[in-house]
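Budget justification note: compute hours in this period were largely spent on complex prediction jobs such as the one shown. Inputs:
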Amino acid sequence: MAKYLFRRVLASVPVLFVVAFIVFALLRLSPGDPAMILAGDGATPAQLDAMRHSMGLDRGIIEQFVIWLSKVLRGDFGVSLITGLPMRDLVLDRLGPSFALCLSTITLAVVVAIPVGVVAAWRQGRALDRIIMSGSVMAFSVPVFIIGYVLILLLSRGLGWFPVQGYRPLSEGIGAFALHLTLPTLTMSAPFIAVISRIVRSSVIEVMGEDYIRTARSKGLSERGVLFKHALGNAAVPIATVVGLSIALLLGGAVVTESVFNIPGLGRLVLEAVLSRDFTAIQTLILLSSVTYVVINLAIDVLYSILDPRIRY
Amino acid sequence: MTLTQLATSPPATGPDRSVNDPPSPSESFARAQLRRVFRSWPVRMALGALVGLVLIAIFASWLGTSDPTELSPGARLKGVSAAHWLGTDSLGRDVYSRAIFGSRVSLVVGLGAATISIAIGLLIGVISGYSRSADAIIMRFMDGVMAIPGILLAIALVSLVGANLLTVLIAICIPDIPRVVRLARAVVLSVRSEPYVEAATTLGTRFHVMIWRHIVPSTVAPLIVQGTFIFASAILAESVLSFLGAGIPPETPSWGNIMADGRVYFQLQPGLILFPGLLVSMTVLSINLLGDAMRDGLDPRLSGRL
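Corresponding output:
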């Protein structure tokens, strides 16, 4: 196990390296000169040269990459081009709202999607299954922000149950915090519920066709017993995969949801960075979310061996 | 990686299921399957909606009631009226006409994204499946691209390179390419050991004949299915990018741009977001239903399961 773990961690290194390279290369795609952007329009040629030198832009591209990478590995992501603040502080500052939103979203998604998927699988081909599956296809065919606006229209403007937009940290009281987080969570979790329930359904159906399920049934186990004791456990691996990958995709979803609901989180930071062409911020945020993806993938692979003892390394 | 990709992938059952072999059913069987699947009414409705959309896109200049880019500052944010069937946006442009012309952008983006990512992905996938030395490097690179959240990569690319239809198209394609590469590579790997391919090799078939006549045909069915899902997710991605302000230039009539314009005035004129949103949703839903139907038809293993 320890040997496998070591090899698996080692295998993620090239992926991380490629990610770092792509993220670094992204900046070079920009037609403008980063020094020019940083120095502003009124800079003299001498100032520009000084700026290029201080940014290391007069060195070779490989050298620049190595310098950048070694800084990143030490946790130094550079300084935001627009605000002048260190990226690390900016990210930490925005982490709270995004973390709250992502945590509530994935919790709701898992709590709703697993039972829904199991029920659909249990009633496979019947009306209830069809309804659930149609709902699932619809939920990921609608742009997320449309779901958000419809919810605002119905529940905030219409019924007045929830505030239209904004965010209150937990420190301002749990009531306000939960009220402000409800609609964004419902919005963001809709496509995740759709996707997770689809995968849960298909994996449970696959498992239900196995011989050991027939054995369990023929030894007189109740349908519920079959489902919970034998089917769900064996369907755990694909379910864990889809939940894990969903977690990795949360930040992407947060960009849209946070901008609809005006939540000052990392997703909004991405958007602000893009709109103000703050390249360091774009780089840092893409890098961080990709690293999250790789780490979660790693965690899922390790989790497999716990969920499914047949998988031995 | 994007959420749609996750939704449309076959279930993984273990850590090393990435190289699963899509079957290549005989053509007559596939045709019979497809006919069966296409008989269901939701699929027929989806097909009808898409045909309608294509017709709207082709005849947009006759269907539109006015120039979709014409500004009339006097008639801003007007409601539904006889002159403006869906009202006007914040610059006084006719929303109905913009929506009609917007269908062109959506179809071009969808079709373009599907074609480009399949063409590039197939090329890279075949190389990767054929050459062991290239394979390791290509697949590590693809893993890297897949690790970057699709939407973040797309908005970063558009904002860095500059927004126009082509950059938006490319930005939408790049996150989809690794999936196509994996699929094509898996097919190549499974077909390579088939007796007919070994026979062709023994007979000294030249490389390009081998690829075109013996390898590529097996990739057609799974890639058509994949292309359909890329089509759908590209339309969704265009609307999200425009909505976030990192899409096609705002004066271009596209569904995403109408919604982006309506964002600030949502409380005043919800129709500006809801109507184009309905169009996007119906279109994407139709294409997804069609994709599901084709997958059920072309890949009987998954029929009724996913």
